[in-house]
Write a structure and sequence with these properties.
With 371 residues, this protein is mainly alpha-helical. Helix content is 63%, strand content 0%. The longest helix is centred in the last third of the chain and has 19 residues. The protein has 2 domains: 145 residues, Serine Threonine Protein Phosphatase 5, Tetratricopeptide repeat; 158 residues, no CATH class. The chain is built from 19 helices and no strands. Helix 10 runs antiparallel to helix 11.
């Protein structure tokens, strides 16, 4: 089972500056009143006025003036202002990019207990941006924020625990933290939890739970979550959960979402489309899409030579299957010995999975799926 979300568990899907700016725009205090309170030294008013001026929300956009007010609020120990200021320095918005200053402001808010700042500081420690790279310290900050119920940090901490980076490896503990994050609606955690169920890492192999979490994640606006569902439906070892037609539809949606986001077509998604078409019995189209995946992989500069060699072998082996009029099916995993279920996971009671007999993958007449 493919899963390409692991890094996003740490860095998040959106920049923290944009996330916090959206949060700060809540409320409808008139600008004149805000200005008056800000000039009197009210930190909340300074913060909101600054954010409005930086974003142009309801006022004339003025990044320099907005930065001034956010700084004033931050200097009064306004925690969200400190975090936003760190985000602005990290992203280079309204101010020259400065990762050291970003870390300094994150630290002020993190030390005071703001979970978003703790998560942001953990990311800098994990990547060595503005501070010395320190996986152990990153894990500590993620844990602090996770313990306060902050979903992105729960997923980030789970990722560290799953891989044993900066903290003792414990896949069962990681699964529980992914579940906590997933139950708050954090999509990358959902797909990773589904992957753990699919492979039996930290939990028993459970294809139905994997299907349910992939299905829920796919309702988001994240193309990779939709791609994960398509791959699952096309390649799951359980024939009762395979659905070639739905896999093709989901693969198309994922590719469309990626294109609408202005991103280039990825070999992983093209590979998924090929697998979906093959599961649906459309082997001629599957062959064309798989050849395209191989070509895109050859051009991908983001993969190492070792990764390229391994993926190329996988892609070519799938191509050979399609040429023999056979769909690709993932190998059934045995799972970790002694893994126990998560009693807190009620996903099967919440999602209605389809029942029925396995669908055939016999060759069908071409429907002309365009490569």
């Amino acid at each position: 089972m493919k899963n390409v979300w692991l890094f996003s568990l740490l860095v998040g899907v959106l920049s923290f500056a944009s996330i916090c700016i959206v949060q700060a725009q809540q409320g409808g205090t008139p600008v004149k009143e805000l200005q008056q309170w800000a000039e009197r030294g009210d930190a909340d008013a300074q913060f909101e006025l600054g954010i409005r001026q930086i974003t142009g929300e309801g006022v004339e956009k003025n990044e320099a003036e907005g930065l001034k007010w956010v700084k004033k609020a931050a200097e009064q120990n306004h925690l969200r202002a400190q975090h936003i200021l760190g985000s602005l320095y990290e992203d280079g918005v309204a101010v020259e990019k400065d990762l050291v200053k970003a870390a300094e402001w994150y630290t002020k808010a993190a030390d005071a207990g703001l979970p978003m700042a703790q998560h942001s500081l953990g990311i800098l420690n994990d990547l060595g941006r503005g501070v010395k790279k320190d996986p152990a310290k990153a894990a500590q900050w993620f844990q602090k924020a996770a313990s306060q119920g902050y979903a992105p940090a729960q997923a980030a901490y789970a990722s560290k625990v799953e891989r044993g980076e900066g903290v003792e490896k414990n896949t069962a503990k990681a699964a529980l933290w992914y579940l906590k994050s997933s139950q708050q609606g954090y999509v990358p955690a959902m797909t990773r939890l589904a992957y753990l169920y699919y492979t039996g890492s930290g939990v028993p192999v459970d294809y139905r739970r994997a299907a349910a979490w992939y299905l829920r994640a796919s309702r988001s606006d994240e193309p990779w979550a939709t791609n994960d569902l398509a791959w699952f439906l096309a390649t799951c070892p359980d024939p009762y959960l395979q659905n070639g037609d739905e896999a093709v539809q989901q693969a198309k949606i994922a590719l469309k979402m990626l294109a609408e986001a202005g991103a280039e077509e990825r070999h992983e998604m093209v590979d998924t489309m090929a697998a979906a078409l093959a599961r649906n019995g459309e082997f001629m189209e599957a062959i064309l899409w798989q050849k395209k995946a191989i070509a895109l992989l050859a051009e991908d500069k983001d993969v190492t030579d070792e990764e390229r060699k391994e993926l190329e072998a996988e892609f070519k082996s799938r191509l050979a299957l399609y040429q023999d009029q056979k769909p690709y099916t993932d190998k059934e995993e045995e799972g970790e010995k002694g893994a126990t279920a998560l009693p807190q996971d009620t996903i099967l009671q919440e999602e209605n999975l389809p029942q029925g007999k396995p669908k055939s993958s016999k060759p069908k007449r071409s429907r002309g799926t365009v490569v």
